[in-house]
């Protein structure tokens, strides 16, 4: 087994209490501890169960549409003039983002546990849609918690969830965004823990969620690694993915962690710029603490209160980050950087115009950084960007920023 | 012996149950908290549980969530809550006080700094919602250094074997959460509470206090029949908030809070109708 410079075996985390070095763990109310233990036991059984894996692979192939292509963005790369950029097309998955890889997996777990009701939190609405979708397919009752501010920003996704039969519960507490939706989902879970499965959408939350969501999302990196070898005959020189909670990034990065030649960049939301204080970049500008069941880097004030965050993209507008990212930052395996709102908007337009691919605003942060990075590299080098989601959901936000007033009829 | 253990021993000798009101430090106004603590004691409280405001109170129902928001708007933080304990101690050296809150403000302050400040303030115990026994070693080392109790929650979903692991880390008393849910929710099933309290007793000699769902004298008396104490939170917070919403001054808030606690005290002591 290969180890990195610090001697860490990447497959050895988390430990049995869910720790990634100093991070992770299970910081939740006692009422939930037995449900987490039950989930962990079941997951560890099923992870080694061939029938379960066959069922999951079948769903990923025939319902999600995997494998997703690895696509060379030729015109965009030419225009930037540097490394060749390949896009891992998670936007082509059913429901339009990487989120479904995880919801399909967790819904199978819910079914194995005999839970008839699923709940989820959502920011941009992609995880909510992916959860509502799988709930419709399996005939499960579905409640999605969403901040009022995000409901406004992502109205088309709200309507999609309703069409799929889910109940969308508006959350009016705190900053009315993803963090508050997660608080409310936790409150629902603690109340209905007997019959409810909480489908967490990112690699955060109490153990075993960061581990199992990572495992379900690793299909992205496994495919990308094989596709890179097949298409270019070599591994990529760099990987780039946006990081909110960090599930698409960990999914791409994890299968490459032991490939020392592959550099990795997690791109956080710089909002109006790190200096403005209005951003959502805990790894770049935060400090470690405990929120939503795990120890991780957080945006917090000197008294340990969680700060309001800002990002143009609802899906990155979160003050925490998955604990494995905190660990990967501290050991130096992944570089965490930022792209601000304006840079993300430019990348959105740039990719849309040169490749005919409209990325999600979350993804646009990764693209913005990839543009800068590619320009410093040579045409013999390659970068894989995780194109984590499509941008259809964001057209209202984009139009508003660009000052376009169209009436929906 | 800690002030908390001493108080339970004293109550047991008198054949009485502990009445433990919960309020949030700085809610609804910062100036009312310390006088309110005294008023609650005068009305029959045996111990005070002071909530530390947090931006993301995940285990709270709407009533206490709003109390946290009001307290934060009043700029009350962990240090201010500790200062309130200091102020309370100037006139009351007998009544145990514990802080109830979430992990992050304490982690941010640092466990050692917190323990030193808590000792200096005259605090007796800490109850964190989100530091389970698996994660508690570091904080307990500091709390034990200064002789502070760490109060743990046991839930209806806690398996038997786990109760032992919790009891091994706990001191002062065990807090039994009577409901699956957030604070202020639902209705109590006293038989179910009695069953779980009995289960806890098979693992520990620590006193058991029951919280979540105790709203009035009747529910307090039912629970008091099986446990050593009851915690009253949402009902009290709501009562005081209603007085504030009606335009009441601090004296009116004290009266509202003390009135409810006096009623519940009477119920617990079995002298109410």
UniProtKB/TrEMBL annotation, chain A:
Subunit structure, interactors included: Tetramer of two alpha and two beta chains.
Pfam families in the record: PALP (PF00291)
Family: Belongs to the TrpB family.
UniProt cross-references to NCBIfam families, sorted A to Z: trpB
Protein name listed in UniProt: Tryptophan synthase beta chain
Alphabetized UniProt keyword annotations: Amino-acid biosynthesis, Aromatic amino acid biosynthesis, Lyase, Pyridoxal phosphate, Tryptophan biosynthesis
Purpose of the protein: The beta subunit is responsible for the synthesis of L-tryptophan from indole and L-serine.
GO molecular function term, any single one: tryptophan synthase activity
InterPro entries in alphabetical order: Trp_synth_b_CS, Trp_synth_beta, Trp_synth_beta/beta-like, TrpB-like_PALP, TrpB-like_PALP_sf
Enzyme nomenclature, EC number: 4.2.1.20
Lyase found in the keyword field: yes
UniProt keyword annotation of Transferase present: no
Organism per entry: Kineobactrum sediminis
Class of the enzyme per the UniProt entry, highest EC level: lyase
Domain Tryptophan synthase beta chain-like PALP residues, every copy: 65-389
Catalysed reactions, as listed in the record: (1S,2R)-1-C-(indol-3-yl)glycerol 3-phosphate + L-serine = D-glyceraldehyde 3-phosphate + L-tryptophan + H2O
Lineage, highest ranks first: Bacteria, Pseudomonadati, Pseudomonadota, Gammaproteobacteria, Cellvibrionales
Gene (name only): trpB
PTM sites of type N6-(pyridoxal phosphate)lysine: 99
Pathway in which the depicted protein is active: Amino-acid biosynthesis; L-tryptophan biosynthesis; L-tryptophan from chorismate: step 5/5
Any single GO CC term annotated in Swiss-Prot or TrEMBL for this entry: cytoplasm
Cofactor requirements of the protein: pyridoxal 5'-phosphate
From TrEMBL, chain B:
GO molecular function per UniProt: tryptophan synthase activity
Gene3D superfamilies: Aldolase class I
Residues the record marks as active site: 49 (proton acceptor), 60 (proton acceptor)
GO cellular component annotations of the record: cytosol
Reaction(s) the record says it catalyses: (1S,2R)-1-C-(indol-3-yl)glycerol 3-phosphate + L-serine = D-glyceraldehyde 3-phosphate + L-tryptophan + H2O
Entry EC number(s): 4.2.1.20
Family: Belongs to the TrpA family.
Subunit description: Tetramer of two alpha and two beta chains.
Biological role: The alpha subunit is responsible for the aldol cleavage of indoleglycerol phosphate to indole and glyceraldehyde 3-phosphate.
UniProt cross-references to HAMAP family, sorted A to Z: Trp_synth_alpha
Official protein name in the record: Tryptophan synthase alpha chain
